[in-house]
Write a structure and sequence with these properties.
Layout lengths: L5 H23 L1 E3 L5 E3 L1 H4 L1 H25 L4 H12 L4 H4 L1 H7 L5 H22 L2 H37 L6 H11 L5 H11 L5 H29 L3 H30 L4 H25 L3 H11 L5 H28 L10 H28 L4 H11 L3 H13 L5 H27 L48
Antiparallel strand pairs: 1-2
Helix pairs in contact: 3-4, 3-15, 4-15, 7-14, 7-15, 8-9, 8-11, 8-16, 9-11, 10-11, 11-12, 11-17, 12-13, 12-14, 13-14, 13-15, 16-17, 16-19, 17-19, 18-19
Length: about 500
């Protein structure tokens, strides 16, 4: 006897196996109360089952939304951020609150928060690990100018905006200084891993413009994390003496990491055998978590310590490769989607409702953010020798905020600096500004007189990789194409 068709087999199996088992499980998790009403026992009797169910729902939703985003020409992170918002009170919570509470009950939110924060710590550690000092030396003053202008101008715009937004959006008890600092910082961020993914999707990894944008993003990331540490210290300390103590301890921590760097390099260099390499990978991970714990105790957030420790670990070796293959894949596939959902679960677009004033503020904040970041970066690139076509591409790429912006916003939310409506507006701003990058770059490249120029390698001998910016010897933005064809991207950022 044989099954005639796969479809018939699937229907019979689902109807006679899957459905009865599902109904039985549902009945086993239902109890009849004294009043004859049904109540669920899952949350009380099976807390881990609810946590695992919430994780499965979140990861599946983020993956599906990422695939949809790719189909419409966007990086997957745009869909993943959108999925987090849709799972929160803005969509599912407003349309079907009972379903949302059953899938992601309030009791599992603290556990999801812990997993999400741990994922962010691992993520910024890997970002620090990817940092290439030679990339900055290769582009010299050009990268420093463009990246720092792309921070300074948006930061100024954010501080000016905070003067007008303080009365409406500042939470009670929050002074104007921390509010202005966080709003300025939220305007200044570039998400380097998201930028790397966009460059890969556009075929620009290793090209002249792509390499410059990645180099600028590297400098931008380092500066942004340092600024975040400074802002958190100013906000968290109860007095000026507390600020000074926090900053002194932070500088001592930086000195400690610098002193440990030769030791870490020796450990990595001597890890030649597989068993020794596995032990070194585990030791490096322990060091990253301890660094995060130290900076948490100091008062400047664990992500700062993890990032600096990542910078102290040598890249381009077997240990770094194993870290990316194991920790990077786990973080990207499981823990970062939890962070996206955690941000979305705290983002309630419904707070804006039909309030035209709040939506007007949302539009103003988006315009200010794009004008400061995209406009400032483009003007800086034009000022150091790029033509306007290339400058607009660089500006659009630097305007990519994505995950790094969500990290900054969640720090502001956890410290009580950002109110719920402002947090929702800034998350929407991060989503829209990230989604703008690829279409603007495609349009600018299509209008270029030499469309292939963007794919030309920055240097004939430069190694290309989607996760790092290779070195380039010149400090100019000449439009002349390089002598060799562009290399295809060889990696995929997490």
């Amino acid at each position: 006897m044989s099954v005639r068709t796969p479809t018939r087999f699937a229907l019979v199996y689902c109807g006679l196996v899957v459905v009865p088992v599902a109904v039985a499980l549902l009945l086993l998790n239902v109890d009849v109360g004294a009043g004859g009403r049904l109540r669920t026992m899952v949350a009380d009797a099976h807390p881990f089952a609810r946590l695992f169910l919430a994780i499965a729902v979140i990861v599946a939703a983020c993956k599906l939304a990422g695939l949809v985003a790719e189909r419409v020409g966007q990086p997957p992170v745009v869909g993943e951020i959108a999925a987090g918002i849709l799972l929160g009170p803005s969509a599912l919570g407003a349309i079907a609150p009972t379903v949302r509470n059953w899938l992601i009950p309030a009791g599992v939110l603290p556990q999801l928060d812990v997993l999400a924060q741990f994922g962010v710590v691992l993520f910024v550690f890997l970002v620090g690990l990817e940092f290439k000092y030679r990339a900055i030396r290769g582009y010299g003053r050009l990268a420093v100018v463009v990246s720092h202008v792309s921070i300074a101008i948006p930061f100024l715009f954010g501080v000016v905006l905070a003067v007008f937004a303080y009365r409406r959006f500042a939470p009670p008890g929050i002074g104007s200084l921390p509010f202005a600092l966080f709003l300025g910082l939220s305007m200044s961020v570039t998400a380097m891993p998201v930028l790397a993914r966009i460059l890969q999707d556009l075929g620009m990894s290793g090209g002249r413009i792509g390499t410059l944008a990645m180099t600028c993003a590297l400098v931008d990331d380092v500066t942004a994390w340092l600024l975040l540490a400074l802002v958190v210290a100013l906000v968290s300390a109860s007095s000026m003496v507390g600020v000074l103590v926090t900053m002194v301890l932070t500088m001592l921590f930086v000195g400690l990491i610098a002193a440990l760097r030769p030791v870490i390099a020796w450990l990595v260099a001597t890890a030649t055998r597989p068993a020794r390499r596995r032990a070194t990978v585990q030791l490096v991970l322990v060091g990253a978590v301890l660094a995060a714990a130290l900076t948490e105790w100091i008062g400047v957030q664990g992500i700062f310590g993890a990032f600096l420790f990542g910078m102290a670990v040598p890249a381009d070796n077997a240990v770094a490769g194993q870290l990316h293959d194991t920790v990077g894949k786990l973080t990207g596939a499981l823990l970062l989607p939890l962070f996206f959902a955690d941000s979305g679960l705290h983002t309630d677009v419904g707070l804006l409702g039909r309030n035209g004033v709040l939506w007007l503020w949302a539009g103003v904040i988006l315009v200010v953010a794009v004008a400061g970041k995209l406009g400032g970066s483009a003007v800086a690139a034009r000022g150091v020798g790029a033509d306007w076509n290339d400058a607009v591409q660089i500006g659009a790429l630097m305007n990519t905020r994505g995950l790094t912006e969500l990290v900054v916003l969640n720090v502001g939310r956890s410290l009580g600096v950002l109110s719920a409506p402002l947090f929702a507006i800034l998350v929407l701003m991060a989503l829209v500004s990230t989604a703008m990058a690829a279409p603007i770059v495609r349009r600018a490249r299509a209008g270029s007189s030499s469309p292939g120029a963007a794919e030309q390698p920055a240097h004939a001998g430069a190694a290309t990789h989607a996760r790092s910016a290779p070195a380039a010897p010149d400090n100019s933005m000449s439009n002349a194409p390089a002598s060799s064809p562009g290399h295809p991207p060889t990696g995929s950022p997490h």
